Amino acid sequence: MADAVKEGSYLSSKLHDVVQRQVESAERQAFVAERKVSVAEKELAIMQQSRPRLYSESDVWDMLTELGLES
User: Which domain of life is it from (predicted)?
Assistant: First the structure.
């Protein structure tokens, strides 16, 4: 009987260890997912700020004039 109780306690302890590792793994996965979201948000902000701008001929001329390079 004592052996059965010890074995049950041992199995319970091992099960607890497995569950604890699963919790830690889930926490790490959640952290990684949050970091991925953060990186994606930063990438999106950079892409939105760096959209190419088309300049008309008059825009270019105006800029050259402002810089004193129109000659």
Answer: Eukaryota
The pTM (predicted TM-score) of the whole model is 0.55
Distance (Å, whole) CA 13 – CA 5: 12
DSSP 19-66: HHHHHHHHHHHHHHHHHHHHHHHHHHHHHHHT---PPPHHHHHHHHHH
Locate 30 and state its tokens: 């959640």
70 within 8 A of 61, measured Cβ to Cβ = yes
Sign of the four-CA dihedral 56, 61, 62, 63: positive
Question: Can you give the pLDDT of all 71 residues of the chain as single tens digits?
Answer: 767 667 778 889 999 999 999 999 999 999 999 999 999 999 999 988 887 888 999 999 999 999 988 66
